[in-house]
Amino acid sequence: MRGLVVAGVAAAALAIAAGSAQAARTPQQARGTGAASLVKTINVAASEFKFVLSAKSAKRGVVIFKVKNVGKLGHDFAIDGRKTKVISPGKSATLRVVFLKKGAYPYKCTVPGHAAAGMKGVFTIT
What is the 3-state secondary structure (H, E, C) of 64-105? Predict the structure, then answer.
């Protein structure tokens, strides 16, 4: 009888320990998954006179625009009140923007005449 009680207590202790270990892992896994989905990288190729984005939309959160000037003139990239410096041909710049609200966000090159020539578009946050 005493052997059954000891075995029962040991089994209960193992079940509690296993449950605690699983509970300890679950929040970390959830945090890691959630954090990764909050950051989106968009590659942007700038040339005369257009932008080509690797994606036209992202979810709310941090969007990192990696802008490469593949043209022959200097270009920049502006969106939501932020912009890169003027990027020389063959060079790159990174722009990090936090989007808190869903919506349509216009982007453009602010070098005079470039947006009018076609260097503009709309990026969507869902």
Answer: EEEEEECCCCCECCEECCEECCCECCCCEEEEEEEECCCEEE
